[in-house]
Amino acid sequence: MVIVLKQKPDENKVEELMKRLRGMGLDIHQSRGQNSTILGLVGDTSAVDIDALSALEIVETVKRIQEPYKNANRKFHPADTVIEVGSVKLGGGNFAVIAGPCSVESHEQLCAVAADVKAAGAAMLRGGAFKPRTSPYAFQGLRGEGIKLLLEAKKETGLPIVTEIMDLSQLYLFDEVDVIQVGARNMQNFEMLKELGRLHKPILLKRGLSSTLQELLMSAEYIMAGGNQQVILCERGIRTFETATRNTLDLSAIPALRAMTHLPIIVDPSHATGHASMVKPMAVAAAAAGADGLMIEVHNDPANALCDGQQSLTPGQFADTMQAVQAVLPFACR
Amino acid sequence: MVIVLKQKPDENKVEELMKRLRGMGLDIHQSRGQNSTILGLVGDTSAVDIDALSALEIVETVKRIQEPYKNANRKFHPADTVIEVGSVKLGGGNFAVIAGPCSVESHEQLCAVAADVKAAGAAMLRGGAFKPRTSPYAFQGLRGEGIKLLLEAKKETGLPIVTEIMDLSQLYLFDEVDVIQVGARNMQNFEMLKELGRLHKPILLKRGLSSTLQELLMSAEYIMAGGNQQVILCERGIRTFETATRNTLDLSAIPALRAMTHLPIIVDPSHATGHASMVKPMAVAAAAAGADGLMIEVHNDPANALCDGQQSLTPGQFADTMQAVQAVLPFACR
Amino acid sequence: MVIVLKQKPDENKVEELMKRLRGMGLDIHQSRGQNSTILGLVGDTSAVDIDALSALEIVETVKRIQEPYKNANRKFHPADTVIEVGSVKLGGGNFAVIAGPCSVESHEQLCAVAADVKAAGAAMLRGGAFKPRTSPYAFQGLRGEGIKLLLEAKKETGLPIVTEIMDLSQLYLFDEVDVIQVGARNMQNFEMLKELGRLHKPILLKRGLSSTLQELLMSAEYIMAGGNQQVILCERGIRTFETATRNTLDLSAIPALRAMTHLPIIVDPSHATGHASMVKPMAVAAAAAGADGLMIEVHNDPANALCDGQQSLTPGQFADTMQAVQAVLPFACR
Amino acid sequence: MVIVLKQKPDENKVEELMKRLRGMGLDIHQSRGQNSTILGLVGDTSAVDIDALSALEIVETVKRIQEPYKNANRKFHPADTVIEVGSVKLGGGNFAVIAGPCSVESHEQLCAVAADVKAAGAAMLRGGAFKPRTSPYAFQGLRGEGIKLLLEAKKETGLPIVTEIMDLSQLYLFDEVDVIQVGARNMQNFEMLKELGRLHKPILLKRGLSSTLQELLMSAEYIMAGGNQQVILCERGIRTFETATRNTLDLSAIPALRAMTHLPIIVDPSHATGHASMVKPMAVAAAAAGADGLMIEVHNDPANALCDGQQSLTPGQFADTMQAVQAVLPFACR
Known about the structure:
By secondary structure, chain A is an alpha/beta fold. The first copy, chain A, has 2 domains: 2-63, Phospho-2-dehydro-3-deoxyheptonate aldolase, domain 1 (Alpha-Beta Plaits), CATH 3.30.70; 74-331, TIM Barrel (Alpha-Beta Barrel), CATH 3.20.20.70. In chain A, 32% of the residues lie in helices and 18% in strands. Chain A has 10 helices and 14 strands. Chain A is elongated and about 75 Å long. Chains A and B meet through helix 2, helix 5 and helix 6 of A and helix 2, helix 5 and helix 6 of B.
C-alpha cells in the first residue's frame, strides 16, 4: 500500500500516522520529494481501511498495491482449481458446457431439452426455478416445483443440475442440486455469499452487471473465506452504453481472470448478447480464448418460451454450436 | 407496443401472430411500407412478453410505448405521494434530511452524532447495523446490536431511524425501525422487495449502481404491487468510467423521475461522490434541483470511522451544509 | 418511424402535424388507444428530424424504426464488400492481418519489424507517423518523416501500408499511403470524414471509445455518401468502468455488425486490452468469431518503445499469435 | 510515481532499471517486502513513459502519483483564472451565461433570439455555424455564412459571440469571433488544440462524451502549453447506460475540477439532458454547486428548429430560468 501525503503536511500528524501504521505490524519506507511525500507500507495490508486513511487531513491519496483477495489469488495458489460435479470436471484443462432452458416450464419441456443437450454434448443441465425478473408482472418461475422437475430430469438423463438461488430462505430446497448459481444481481448479496461459503458444494458465481473483475473475486473470496473453495466464475456481459446487444460480453475477462486467479472461468453468451444469432460466434470465441466452459440457454420452442425466448437456441442450433466449439477447442489459448 | 416485422414476412405467420395478440385482448393497427411493416398494439400490453415476441422468425424488433410500471406511474396517480414518519413528512413539498454515521459503532458515538445532526436540522437518523462491504475482511457492522443502539438513540433524541436490511432473515429485527433501507446492491433483490411489499412501513429504495431510472421504478413497483405504497426513491450515484469521484451523481434523475412518478426522491451525496469535500456542493445542488430530501453521512471522528471515513462530514461540516441547503430551498425548482 | 402522442392531444395540432408529415411524402397510420395515440410513418424517413418532432407540445416520444444509414446497410447491399489493397483482399471471406509498431521510430526499427511481421504472415504494415497522445509532453510521432519511412519499408518489403491521419492539413502527405486510418478519437470528426469520402482509397475507421455500433455506421456513411465505398470497420475496445484492461473489447460487435452492414470488420486486440499478454487470446477469439482481419502492434523492443510498449508483441510473440489465429480460421463463424 | 515489481525479480534487471531512472534525474526509494518490492520515484516524472516501464518483464504495475498536467494545475497556480471577453468576466467569482440557438438559421432568427437572451441577462451569444451531426443527411450548418450572421448579431446587440470550430481549415473565419468553442467530439483533436494554443483568444473546451476529468485537463494543457492560458472548461454530460436523458450530467465535476484546476468551469444543461423541461432544474443546480457560468440553447420556435429543438428553451422559458439561477447565485457553494 502506498500513501501519498499532501504538500507540506503537519509533521506531528505524520509521526502519529506512522506510529499507528507500525502498530499494525507494517514497515514503512518514506520517499520525500519537493512536491510530495510517499509512504510505502510493507507487510499484510489486507486489514488496513483505505477509507479511514484517506479521511486524514494530511493524506492526499492511498493506493493499494497488493490484491485484497487471498484465497482466490493465483499468487498464493498457482495451480488451477478443478471443480468436480459427479463425473464432470471443470477447470484445469477440463472444458464443460452447461445448457438448458431459461426457466423450467414443465416435465415434458425440461426432459426433452435435457435429452437434446445431452446428446449434443452438454455436461450439465441448467434451468431456472426461481427467476429474477425486472417486472413483478412477469413469470416468476415454478419455484419449488421447478426444483422437483430439475431433479426428475437429472434422474432421467444423469446430467448434474445447475440452478439459481434468489434468497437464503430457499436454501433448504437445494440439497440435491449439484451446483448452486448466484445470479448477476446477487453477486454482492454478501449475506448469501457467506452462507454459501459454509456448504460443500460448487457455487457458480455470475459477474454483476457493473462489477469489476476485482469485485467478482472479492465476492468469490466471501464464499472461500467460509471454507467452500469450489467457486466457478461466470462472465455474462456487463452494462455499457451499447444497445445493439443486451449487455457487452467482456471476453478479455478470460485472460485477465486467468492471471489473477486459479478458479475456473466460464462464459454465458446467451445473457451477454441477448440474441440467439450471436450465441454461436461468442461461444466459439470464448472457447478459443481459453474459457473453461460455457453456459447456454436452449429451448425446444423459443417463440413460446416463458422467458428469454429471444436469446434461446433451438436444440438444433445448440448441436451446431457444440460442433463449432469442439472444433476450436484443440487450438484454444490456455 | 409496436412490432416491426422483417422484410417480406411469411403472411401465414403474420396472421398467426395477429390472432395470438388479439387473443390477449389487444387491438392491432397495421402500417405497411415498402421496406417495413409495423404493427401497433393498443390496449393493456403489460403482460406481453417482449422477449417471446422478439424470438419470432418474422419479427425484427419490438418497442414498448407504454411504461411497464403502473402503481409508480404519475400518469395514473398525478398527485405527489407524501411519506409520513412520525411527525416527519417527506415529499409533496416537504423536504427532510436523513443524517448519521455510515455504521453504528457504539452508544456514545451514535447518540453524540444523533444529537448533533438533530441540532443542525436533520429530521431522521441513519446508521448502518448490517454493512455490505466489498471485502469479507472488512468490518461487517454490529448487526442486531447495532439495531438496539439505533433504537436507544431514537429514544434519546426522538429522531425516527432509517437503517438497511441485507437479508430477509434479519427482518424480525426491524419491527421498531421507522424506515427500512434497501441498498443499491439489493435494488433487484426481488424476493426481498416482494416481502417488503407486505409491510406497512416506508421503504427507502436506493438506485442500483448500473440501474436505469425505469428499472428503479420497476423495483418500486415490486414493493407497491404487494400493497405497500410508501416508497422513497434515492439517487446515490451510478457507476461510470470516471474515477475522480466514487460514483457519478446523476442529478438529472430528479426532474426525470419527477415526471415519471409521484414517489418522493431523495439524494445521497456522500456515497455518490465519496469525498467529504464534495458533499456540500452536491447537497445544495440537489436541493436546488428539487429533491425532496437528502441522506448524508456524518461522523464525530471520520479519520477513525469503521467505514466510509473519507466521505463523512464532521458535525460542524454538516451544520454548515444544512445552512447552505436551507438557504437555497425557497428557490428550489419544483 | 413511430410517433407517440401525449394523452388527450390538441386535435388541431395533431391535424397540423399530419399535414406536415404528409407534405414530406410520408404515409401515416394511426393507432388510437385509451391512453396513447401512435402515428406510424411509412416511407423514406431519413430526412425527418427526430429532435424537431420531439419538441412539439403534443408529442411524447419518437422512435426510429428504419436504420438511418443507407450505403452501409446490408438490407440494401446484401453482398459482402471486399476491399482490395494491391494483391491483398479483406472481407467477403478474405482474412488479412495488419501489423507493425505503434509509432514509426527509425528506418532500422520499422524495416526490421516489417520483415518480421511479413515472415509471420501479416498482409499489411501499420505504423504511426502522427500520434494522438493524451499528454502534450509525450512523443508526438515523426510526422512527415514517419510517412517517408513507411514508404521506404513498403518498398523494401512489398507490404501495403496503413497509417493514421490526424488532421486534414496532413492529407497531402498520404498520396502513396495504401490505407488511411481514422483513429477512435476522430471517428466523429465529420469534416475529415467528408473529405476522405472524396478519395478513391480504403479508409480504416476505428470505433470511438463511447460510440455505438450505429454511430460507427453513421460515420462510415459520411465517407460513403461522398462516393468512397471502401471502408473497413475496426472494433478496438470501448470505455467502461472496468480497469483491468485498457478498454473493454466488444467482440459481439462482429456478429452484430455482420448483420447490420456489408462492410468488412477487423479487430485491434492491442489497443483494446492494453496488455501484450492478452493480445493472443483476443486475436484468436476475434478470428473464431468471424472477424475479417486483425490489427496488431508489434515492436522489436517493447521495453524501449516510444509509445504503447505495454501492449506491443515481440516479433516472436506475433509469430506465435499468427499460428494460433491460422489454426482456428478454418472453423471461424461466418 | 510508484513502480511495483513482480515477485522475485531478476536483480540485474532491477539494477538496470534503477540506473535508467536515475539517468532521468529521479531519486529512487525502495520498499522491499516479502511479496512485493516498491520503487518510489521522486522528481519530475512528467516525461516518464508509463507504458514503456510497464512493458518491462520485472514490472507488475506503475502508478502515477503526481498529476500529469502543470499549466492547468491548481497546485502550481492557486489563484482562479478570470477570462475577460470585452467587458464580460468569467471565473474567479464572476458568473456569466452564454445563450443562443443550437444553429444559426437566419439573420432574423439570430437577432431576435440574441435580443431576447440579452434582455434576460445573458452575457454572450452562442450559435452554431459549423454543426457536427451524427448523420450526413442532417442539416450541417450555414458555415461561413453563419459566422457572418453571428458577427451581425454581435454588432446589433453588443453581445460577444461564441461559436464552434470543427476543422482547422475553418480557422481563418474565426478572426472576429470572441470565444472559439471546441466541441465534445473534438476534445482530443490534438492537432486542433495545439493550433488553438497559438491564439490569444479564449477557448471554450467541452468535455468529451467518455473523457475523464483528468483527460479534460490534459486537453486544456495542450492549449496552454502553446501559450494560450485562456481556457474555459465545460461539463456537458457524459455517456452512460441511462437512456432517460441524452447524456448524464456530471455536476460533481464542478467541485472535483475546482480542486484540480484554477480554470473556470461552466455547465451546458441543454446538451447534457436533451430535454427542455430538465434545463431549468439543472441550470439552477449547477449555479448552486458553484459553476462559473452556463451555456444554454434558446430558440424562438423550437418545434421548427433546424437542430436540437427538443432541448431548446423558448425565450420566455429562458428568462424564467435566468431568474431562478440569479436567485440561488448568492448562496452558491464556492
